[in-house]
Amino acid sequence: MPVVLSDVFGDPNVGIFSFANERLTILPAGVSPKKLASFEHALGVDAFAVGIADSRLVGIYVTGNSNSIIVPYITTGPELRLLETVGVRVEVLPERRTALGNIVLCNDYGAVLDPRLKPPTVDAINKVLDVPVSTTTIGGLPHVGALASASNNGVLANPIITESEMRKISQTLGVPVEKGTVNSGIPYPKCGVVVNSKGAVVGSLTLGGELLALSRVFQMD
Questions:
Q1: Measuring CA to CA, which residue among 8, 29, 47 is closest to residue 199?
Q2: 13-67 pLDDT tens trace
Q3: Which pLDDT belongs to residue 175?
Q4: How far apart are CA 65 and CA 196, in angstroms?
Q5: In the chain, what are the domain boundaries?
Q6: How far is residue 201's CA from residue 197's CA, in Å, rounded to a whole number?
């Protein structure tokens, strides 16, 4: 499975601008056909260019797994109509926190949520993603989606994660959890990784040792 060093609009924080699951990749509107093709090659799925809330920050706003992708209520009508053509179920979450990619960490086996979310929101995410859910923190911080990156093979988490948090995330998502950084020491894996079970795109500033940890936990060749 390939691991490709890249950027989006010249920025190595590829995970802020992009989302991927086992069925598709979403990049922001305005990316070049060449960039879409490179992500398709790395991740083994079709790539689409769609803005979210008139923003390029796709990875901040979008979350989901192979069952559904979830977008915030501030997603515009034209954006929703375009997303509905990509062949994946799309659901709008009526939650006041709109940075869904920062508060949900999920794969096809489970979802770990920001513990501040209210029960109706937790229930809605459980129903839409159709996987078991739990709430936890990473290093005592609630932004679990920003502090880790997950695939069906593993989770790369901020080094501040505790052993008990690692166990809970591993149990919920059904995959191993490892500590690591991206882009030359940035402790927020979400920022620098877009990954599924077929491959990964990582920030262009990611170092060799970081690539080894990433390849190990995500079971890349």
A1: 47
A2: 999 999 999 999 999 999 999 999 999 999 999 999 999 999 999 999 999 999 9
A3: 98
A4: 10
A5: 3-217
A6: 12
Structure confidence at residue 1 as a pLDDT band (50, 70, 90): low
Rounded Cα distance, 45 and 182, in Å? 23
Q: CB of 195 within 8 A of CB of 149? A: yes
How far apart are the C-alpha atoms of 177 and 102, rounded to whole Å?
Answer: 18
Rg of the Cα atoms in the chain = 16
Amino acid sitting at position 62: V
Task: Yes or no: say if 105 and 169 are a contact pair by the CB < 8 Å rule.
Answer: yes
Query: Which residues have a Cβ under 8 Å from the Cβ of 76 and sit 6 or more positions away?
Result: 51, 53, 54
CATH 1.20.1420.30 fits 3-217, yes or no: no
3-state secondary structure 24-63: EEEECCCCCHHHHHHHHHHHCCEEEECCECCECCHHHHCE
- Residue located via tokens 């923190």: 137
What six digits make up the tokens of 90? 């799309």
Written as six digits, the tokens of 53 are: 């809330």
pTM of the model: 0.95
The CA distance from 177 to 154, in Å, is 6
